[in-house]
Amino acid sequence: MTPETEAELAEAIANAEGPLAIQGGGSRGLSVAGDVLSTQGLTGVELYEPGALTLVVRAGTPVAEVEALLSAENQQLAFEPMDHRGLLGKAGTPTIGGVIAANVSGPRRIQAGAARDHLLGVRFVDGSGQVLKNGGRVMKNVTGYDLVKLMCGAHGTLGVLSEVSLKVLPRPEAVVTVAVEGGDLPSAVAAMSAALGSPYDVTGAAYDPDRSVAYVRVEGFSSSAAYRAERLVAELGRFGSTRLVEDSEAVWQGIRDVVAFHGRAGDVWRISVKPSDAVALAPQLQAEALQFDWGGGLIWALVPEGTDLRARITVPGHATLVRASAETRARLGVFQPQPAPLAALSAGLRQQFDPRGILNSGLME
Questions:
Q1: 174-256 adopts what CATH topology?
Q2: Which sequence spans correspond to the domains of the chain?
Q3: Whose CA, among 66, 131, 152, 164, lies 20 to 30 Å from 77?
Q4: Would you state the pLDDT for residue 250?
Q5: How far apart are CA 254 and CA 260, in angstroms?
Q6: 247 within 8 A of 176, measured Cβ to Cβ
Q7: How many CB atoms lie within 10 A of CB 130?
Q8: Do residues 93 and 62 lie in contact, with contact meaning Cβ atoms separated by under 8 Å?
Q9: pLDDT value at position 24?
Q10: 33: number of CA atoms within 13 Å, CB side?
């Protein structure tokens, strides 16, 4: 089923006789039992006001189309959404609704916030076929339930997005990246922490252990970015050899999309921890390859197929199984198991928004 209007989407859900597998562009590899309900027919820009930094777009609109529209006005999605296709070996088309449903956020999250922090409003259809809306087209403080934040990251289990309103931001005039070479993980985390704690407004901090290189990014007006990068080159020299990177865009796209793992066999896990815990945790993972982002707070791990990586994690955090066989996903679960009180709250929300249990049933349980 591929409805082309919100009314058709509501009718399809209301008339569903069994589970529905909600799908955007099919680029993230999540699969559940049920009839496929695609949002790819819900495309188009409803409103774009560059002067107000506001975009309202239908959920099935391709991310590439949104980014091209914004680029023409020298603007961007500041949360820098990842493209999963290379990592997962998929050929789908990422949609803006899929990005919001999964709260997909890239390296700039440490400075600009996650996708949910840029979401102003949503329209969606719940599990009974009712059309709901929440939020608006400007940032404001309101009372009541914040369904906007609730829908972001729910992976379609509470409702199917039909339209999203987003805050967009200007593209920076310059992007400059400082590389700190030759250090091990403790040194890299210390360097990234120093950069993030500096007054230089760092927008990216990542570490590639295969090359023993930490990357620190600054953005903004050319003169300002150049000055801040120069100061970072000097101040981070105590952690290793420092230099400016020639192609910042390629570096951060590679970090965002975990290009180092593309085409390599094995399961891929995404682990969120405190940056200070990354140093102790890394050797415990016994991974074949690692990549660190968000100053060490986000760890990508490549491990042999079927590995239960959660059993090796001894620090507070959570691990998501991003790439694995259907058998491994069924056995280990995609998402981190929730503590009992939180699981009860989540189940209660699903009961309220999807009383029949038909939307991506079992995906986040």
A1: Alpha-Beta Plaits (3.30.70)
A2: 6-170, 174-256, 260-332
A3: 131
A4: 95
A5: 7
A6: no
A7: 13
A8: yes
A9: 84
A10: 6
Q: Edge to edge, what strands does the sheet with 54-58 contain?
A: 45-49, 54-58, 160-167, 119-125, 131-135
Cβ-contact 93, 82 below 8 angstroms: no
6-170 CATH fold: 3.30.465
Residue indicated by tokens 């990014």:
217
241 confidence band (pLDDT: 50, 70, 90): very high
Residues 6+ apart with CB under 8 A from 170: 53, 74, 75, 76
Share of the chain above pLDDT 70, in %: 97
Query: 361 falls in which pLDDT band (50, 70, 90)?
Result: confident
Tokens 């590679």 sit at which residue? 254
Residue count of the chain, please give it.
365
SS3 sequence of the chain: CCCCCHHHHHHHHHCCCCCEEEECCCCCCCCCCCEEEECCCCCCEEEEEHHHCEEEEECCCEHHHHHHHHHHCCEECCCCCCCCHHHHCCCCCCEHHHHHHHCCCCCCHHHHCCHHHHEEEEEEECCCCCEEEEECCCCCCCCCCCHHHHHCCCCCCCCEEEEEEEECEECCCEEEEEEEECCCHHHHHHHHHHHHCCCCCEEEEEEECCCCEEEEEEEECHHHHHHHHHHHHHHHHHHCEEEECCCHHHHHHHHHCCHHHCCCCCEEEEEEECHHHHHHHHHHHCCCEEEEEHHHCEEEEEECCCCCHHHHCCCCEEEEEEECCHHHHHHHCCCCCCCHHHHHHHHHHHHHHCCCCCECCCCCC
Which residue is it, tokens 């403790």? 186
Contact 59, 39 (CB under 8 A): yes
What's the one-letter identity of residue 36? V
126: exposed, middle or buried (Cβ count in 10 Å: 0-12, 13-18, 19+):
buried
Residue 301 has phi, psi (to 5 degrees) of -130, 130
